[in-house]
Fold this protein.
Amino acid sequence: MKTKIMLITAVLWLFTASLCFSKTMKLTKVGEWGTGDYQRMEVRGNYAYCISPNAGLDILDVSNPVKPIRTGSIFSLDGYALDFSVSDNYAYLKYSTYVTNRGEWYCLLRVVDISNPRAPRLLGRHKYLNANFKVAGSGKFAYVANSGPEILAFDVSDPTTLRRVRRFKIPGKALDIAISGNYVYIAAGYGGLQVLDIMKPPQLNPEGSNTAISPERVIISGTYAYLASNEGIHTLDISSPRHPTLKGTHFMPLDEKIVDFTISGNYAYIIAAHCHSDCGGKKGNFDYLLKVIDLSGPYSPVMTALYLSPQKPTSIAVKDQYAYVTLSVNGYVIYDLSDPFFPVKVASCDETEYPQNVVVSGKNAYLIGGENKLLVMDISDPSTPKKVGKYTDMPSPCDLAISGHYAFIVNPEKNFYVLDISRPEAPVQVGMYTMAINPCRIAISGERAYVADSQKKAIEVVNIANPGRPFRATLWKGEYDDVAVSGNHVCAVESDEYFTDLWKGKCRLFRHIRGICLSGEYAFLPTYSIPGKIVVVKISDSYKPVIIKQIYTRPYRYPLDVAVSNNYAFVIFGYSAFQVRNVSDPKYPGPFVFSDTLVNARRVDASGNYAYLTGGESGKFYIYQVSEVSEPGDTVPGAPDTE
């Protein structure tokens, strides 16, 4: 009897243990590359804070300005980042969001905890502010210039809950705001410069004003206020805040407009837009200038340098001897200003090239797309992928494959390029071939490249035994629009609904097959039929392909791409979702692990336990790692872990 009781107890213990401890998959983002389009930057200490409408807030370590490193990001906003201000351990972020039940766009104020630059955190928010509001923080309070005739004061002592405590009306429109000591300075447009006393917050008391100018921006430095208007840069003495006194003006030419400016030491650094045709409308042609103004004598400021910028700048920040300029198209540029007469570019970031496809080989990832480029990324440290090389002379590349020291790239204009990538920092074109088809997909096996036609007419087989002289080996006619190669198997999607092993036969699948991923003797095919599925097909040398499993993907219905590595299937879906599934036994795949924090990635490749994603509207390149961990609380019964 005791033996039976002990046996039953042991079985119950094992069953309970299996309920509480079993292996699950953990998905971790370990690296990210790409900036989006920066609109504004502020530098505080060793960190630069940048915002982009699409990419949110990025934090860069600029302790070495020649080699800035991104340390943290916030990109899970429910809208578009527009502007921000940094004060102490918080960034006050302005962004717009669409409110469905109101059917309108609104601007919101959001607080971000930046005390740890490597892990910024979103905190509280306040909604329904005017579109062009500006914010400045001081201690436990944040003050908002709401682009109308009012200033709002918020209690931010608890940053998770913003509480408006005061509203104060001013003459004109509150367009910009700055804080110095116990005073708030407001650029109020036709209301001039307004000064408010905040000695006893949240009270706001009028202290002084100067209405001789109509400023749109204000910066405080020492005992001077620097105001930007349509006329130029104005210097005001504010040693007595009650009586701001105009001391000098640097007038801008009539065909120039100030985009942004900042003050550092005795110099003003101005980004100016110079219009040279059709400025009356909004279609004028502009040149963008970096102008340096000597303010050592505030009575007569003098321009000391003029530097043409190659891209459209959006904002400028200065720290020590470096100027940080954000560009609306390609990231940022850093200038050494040790000699203000000759600004020297020391670093730049052009990570907004919007790659559309990625292939991983060894320690490098190869990305194509964007501005007709092949980008080579060093991913030996997945947490900090680095761009090491690029090749630009290719119109609209649409797919690539890597074999040995060569990259094979095709585009819809019937071009087949061969690049030598033995030196990743300097890819070189060594061969080119004009195809008979309009290529869209390419796969490599041995000395053959298999290219599918974007118009579903054929698969062209290219002999690449001599990469410098590729030529057509044969042409297989049929309505093929994707191709993949594994060992002796050349597999294709035919007529949008058949999976074909060109040597063995074909099997009919569901319509709307998006692509093919081959892994060993299995093919994984994402479909966008309703409901969306991933179809698993077994391929063999002895019989035609056979469907063995249909993996349903609800609630993320539309799989866009699949990659398989180390028994894991990495799946990208529409609606910004990424999922991982253990497919060591494709007949009985494990549960999905998923993350919905991506920004519209569309292509995925995998190597080892890492997945590499790109192709979305954010212009980003993501790296994820999947691992197995033992976690308590798993309610799926099974045998205890004996490993």
In short: The first helix runs from residue 2 to 20. The longest strand covers residues 21-33. DSSP finds one helix and 56 strands in the chain.
